[in-house]
Amino acid sequence: MPNFQITEVNKIESLDKLKILNHYAKYNDFFYDDRQGLYKVKSEIINILYNNNIFTNVTYLDGKNMFNPFGCDNYITDRYDFIVDCYFEPGTLPEDDSEYPFDDRYNMVYQKIFGVPPKNDILTEEQKIFMKDYALNYLRGLEKMALNNRGLINKNDIAKLILDPNDIFDFDYKVYDWKDVDDDWFELDSEGHSLIEFEYKDDEYQYSFHIPYRSAVEFVDESDINKIIRTAEHYGTIMTDDESEDENLIDILEYFGFEDKWYLFPRAFESKTDHFCDYDNYYDEDDD
């Protein structure tokens, strides 16, 4: 915890600075790692304010309606149809591999689905349909279990279907191994889109802040959460130019006692615009 003390005297000033810091965290010209660092700072400050009884209301915002990690039924079956065609069609594997026509993983999934090892590399249409239906029902079962338990889907359970991360999820970059996917990746979390809202309100001021449900329940007592449940939405606005001129981010971090935690911001708040302009200029000069 940072060395920051909240009092009645600095309460409104602190809430106002937290509001500006929150806007900085949504500033798209910062690199992702730095923005995530700011969200960690935000969560720690909210923890301090909560434990000092600053907030007048704490509300659970239900995001389970947005939990749909695998997409629609057609998306799943189309993806799995591609898998089946690639690995269970004649001519898709090297000719000199005829004695052992199946990749180990696909051999295993065939046995998992049909209960027996494959006899050849040609599937009937009925077998293909059965495999796709099996995959669909299996993944929907994982979703239902996570929702019932308010838990996460275990990525290893998806891997049992011999799906690589890229087979079912559209990452911005290629991810070939499940070990490279975070165990607590929010897309596999039935509460991954849920939020906890922390509100302060008096006759003159009103502030509200939101952090992910999983982050909040580490320090919030469930009995304190307002039972009036609302549906989660997208909240917050990015920093404005006027705010950036009035409130320097480094000064805000020092105000909250984070002057010795710069490791949270590996890019040191470098501007993406400046970074890529410098990159382009470097190669322009090299071309000359």
Quick description:
The chain is α+β, with helices and mostly antiparallel strands. It has helices spanning 11-25, 32-51, 73-87, 104-114, 125-149, 155-159, 165-168, 213-216, 241-246, 249-255, 272-287; strands spanning 57-62, 195-201, 206-212, 226-231.
Written description of the protein model:
The chain is α+β, with helices and mostly antiparallel strands and 288 residues long. The protein is built from eleven helices and four strands, in the order ααβαααααββαβααα. Strands 3-2-1-4 form a four-stranded mixed sheet. A hairpin with a 4-residue loop joins β2 and β3. α1 (11-25) runs antiparallel to α2 and α3 (73-87) packs across α5. It starts with 10 loop residues before the first helix and ends with a helix.
Put simply, the count of helices is 11
Query: Into which percent range does the helicity of residues fall?
Result: 40-55%
Strand content: 5-15%
Unreliable spans: 90-102
Mean pLDDT: 83
- Tell me the strand order in the biggest sheet: 3-2-1-4
The number of domains: 2
Give the terminus-to-terminus CA distance: 52 Å
Radius of gyration: 25 Å
Structural class: alpha+beta
- Basic shape: elongated
Q: SSE order in H/E notation?
A: HHEHHHHHEEHEHHH
Number of strands: 4
Largest sheet: 4 strands, mixed
